[in-house]
Structure formats: structure tokens, C-alpha cells
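Predict the 3D structure for this chain.
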Amino acid sequence: MKYKNIFMTLFSFIFISSSVFANEVTSDRLKNADSEPQNWLTHHQNLEGYRFTDLNEINRFNVKNLKVAHTIPLGDIAEGSGGLGNHQSTPLVKDGMMYVTGMWNVVYKYDLTGKHPMLLWKFDPESDPDIMGSPVTRGAALYGTAVIINTDDGRVISIDDATGEMNWETQVVSGQYDRLRAAPLVMDDVIMVSNTSGDQGARGWVAGFSPVDGAELWRFWTVPKPGEPGSETWTDADQVAWRTGGAALWVTGMYDVESKQYLVGTGNPSPMFDPEYRPGDNLYSNALLAIDSQTGNLDWYFQYTPGDYLDYDEVGGHIIVDAMYDGEMRKQVGHFGRNGFYYQLDRTNGQFLKAEAYLDNIDWVEGIDPKTGLPLGYKSGQVLQEYIAGGAPRRGGGPIGMCPHLQGGVNMWPTAYNPKTGMHYGAGMEGCSEVEAIVTVADEIDLVDGKVFLGGSLSSTGRIEGSITAYNIKTAEVAGKYMHPAANYAGVVATGGGLVCTGWVDGYVTCHDDKSLDKLWEFYTGTNIKAPPISYSVNGKQYIAILAGGTTSAGWLNLPETEGLQFASTLYIFSL
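Done. Predicted structure below.
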């Protein structure tokens, strides 16, 4: 009997171990994520950033029958004592298991294979609410047999997938100025993590860490210090502006498997509304960076808006696609610019190919130079740019109106790309706002306690609406648009069933025909939505899931009818 027990124990260990390794998320598995449409293994579904699934059980013909399959309340309200925060997280799905990250960085693992989702474990990193304030997180990563998260108070943590116990944690920053809100991306044995709080008087960076023990492997600073390449674009006389220069990386980038480059966009220079404090082009703000994932070296960059003074950072999605351009197959990057233009770049070197306006109202510039990709009106060597006469905020100059709204266009919310049709979808905002530069002495801002370092004030002008835009990569032109009464802070998912689905700040979840963008289905949650949807399949059945809840956007976006929306924290799962 003793030997039988030993045998059974050994057999069980081997069986469990083999199951764990069979479910391991390897680099090869992530490279081929499209071959597993039932899963959602990485933040953007695949490394190229498509947020597309080939699943088609739910399609344009039957989506009208979509209904709630499950609702899962999360414990976010009770997890912390700071502000209420917002859901902006993308759930992950692996082989019938779902990984949901709450606002306070708490991770929940659910088994989806039964009649109802069953919580297997919950990992609470006990993030410091005094540092976090109003919490935000954008998701986790799966790699090997671990779940990797960043915390808003400055840590990178590895969690054992099987047990929910911590493998290791690394305190990357204090969390006082540098927040880690973007989901990590792990590939080729490197965890890529970035600072997401440039507006707190921080200096942007992206770094690589070991998935084995959390050791830092490299770090690239997105604002160069004096003497480093690009530092000549920070021309303030006392050379201090770079220290609080911003250029944060708010969201997870994309990964070029062939070159092993991490492609990620950077935010505005700081302070955002006072260019007189930090004159110059302010590299590497408002740019797309191609960073070698193995060394941290910058291979190339493209800066969209040098010396930005309207908060038009370009942190949003940059999809990786091979497509014909001007009669030639080109390795491209496609990007909905926050400034109202859609950009196509050559991803081998950052060469500009084309920019096309996708918003109806753009008045901050007369256009984009078709040769350089720079805004018309840009003057090389000019320390204070003004892209249109009277359009730049100056100290004591009063408010400056601008369209699009300072939030965009398509901001950091994820976009989606259907590789079969060549259509790229971006959801965002349509409207205008005003900014005013009011800071005259840098010491008026107390950076010691991490206050927001804006250098001015801002306000929305008029009602801010939402939209979904379809851009055809193959023809290099806008192919369609859908307008919604309220703004989009969520982003989109595209499916093989001919659908584009999203959520809106007025509480609606909607699905649209991916050709006409006509609305085919809607569901009202009664709470704010700022998280992107995903689609996956379990036991052969397709689902669409989205996190809903957070503080209202009514005052910020001039939407009085949404003032009654209540704070909530709920995962909605829909099916036929």
C-alpha cells in the first residue's frame, strides 16, 4: 500500500507538471497567437496589436440576439481607501481560464469551463492607496507558468499561475512620480515595463526585466539628459527642464518578431501647456520609438509633433502590418494620431509614408507635410513652435482654442485591425477644447508630493461626442465613420464575424457592422465604461467580455445626462 501511495503521488505530480507545462505561454506561442482564436494570450491579442479574433459564431447576422451570459462583480471598491478610479484593463484568456486585473492591481483567476465562472484564486499585491490615489491599471501578461503584473505604486510582480502565490517582486520606482499602469509585455525572455506618469513631473523611461527573478536588464530614458543624443532639443538656458520632461509611455506597445523591436509611443513633454518652460523640439516626446528588446538601444524614432503644446501625445496603438503602398509591399506601422491624422510609417527605419485626416474638425494645423510627416508650419531650430498663427499657448496670452479636443481623436484606447480586410478601426472623441498657459515660475509647482505638472489650465468647449473610424490600409484612406452621442474611452475589438464592438462613457456596449459601421446591437450597463472588450471561446462557444465601472466623465466631457451614472466594478460577459 505504501508503494502504491508513492506511485500515485508520483503519477499525480507528473500529471500536474505535464499539464502546467502544456499550458505554458512560451515566446513561440505568443508569436503564433493568431492560431489560437479561442484564447486572448497577450494584451493586444497578438504581438502586432490587432485585437482581432477569427471567431465568427457571433456575427453581423445574429448579433442582435446577444445577451448577458455572466456578470462578475469585482471587489475594487473595498480593496483600497483612495479614490474610486477607473477600469481600463484587458482580461486575458488561456485554455478556458480568465485573468482579470482590478483597479487596485488585484488579479482574479476564473475557470470558465463550467456552468458559471469559478474563482480559482485571487492575488492582492496590497498596493499603497496613499500613493495610488485614484487607481488605474490596464492589465497583466502571461509568460511561462507565471502571471506578470505592474502595480500603480511602482512594482513588477510575478505570480505563480497554478497557485496564485507570488514568485518574486521588484520595486522599480517609488510610485510617487512614476506610475506603472500599462500592462507589461513579455517576449524573448524580457519583461517590458514603462513609466506612465509623465504629467507628475517625471522623466519617461522604458525598461526590460528578467522573467526569472525580476532583475533589471536595461533602461532607456525617453527624455535624454545633457550630453545624450537628443538632449540638444531641450534648449532652456538653465538645462533643468529635462528632469521633469514627461514623454511617458502610457500603454503597452507592439512587438516586431523579426527585428525583436518593441514599438511604443510616447506622451507629451511636461509641463504640457507651458512650452516656454521647456523650449525646443523636446525629444523623445510625442514619438514612436523602436527599441531593441535585448539591449534597450533606440534603433529609430519618428516624432509626430515636435515641441507639442496641446497635449497631442502619441501613446496609442501602432499596428504592425505588411501591406502594399504606392505599388510596393512595405513593412508598415499604422497609427491613429491623437492630433487627428492617421499615419503610415515604414517600420524598418521610421520613414514617413502618409498622413490622412480622420477627424471632421482639425484647426490646430493646416496639414501635414507630405514629404516629412511634420506639421505644416514647423520650423527647424525654432525653440518655440507655433503651427498656426495664434494657435500656441503663451504665458499671459489667455486661452487658446484647439480642435481636436486635447484628449484627441483616438487617445490611448486600443484600436483593432482586421488582417483579412485591411481595415483598421479607432474609437475616440470628436470635439474641441481650450488651454491656457498660466505658470510663470517653475517653483510654483510643488513636485515633491507628485502633483500634476501641467503649466496651465484646460477646459472642454461644447459637447464632446464619440466616433468609430475605419481606415483602409490597402487604399490608404478613411473608409467610414460612426458617430455616438458620448465619447469613447474604451477602444475596440474586431472579429471574423464582421463585427466591431466597443463600450462608451455613457454606459453602452455596442457592436457594429465592420463595413458600414452601422450599429447592430447595444446593451446598457448603467455605469461608465473605459475598458476595451475582448472576444474568446470556451467549449466551442464564443463570448464577448468587457469591464465596466469607474468615476463619471460627465463634468470633464460636458455630458450632463451621464451625471447620474453610479460607480460600479463589474465584468460583463455576453454570448448568443
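Residues 1-20, 440-449 have pLDDT under 50 and may be disordered.
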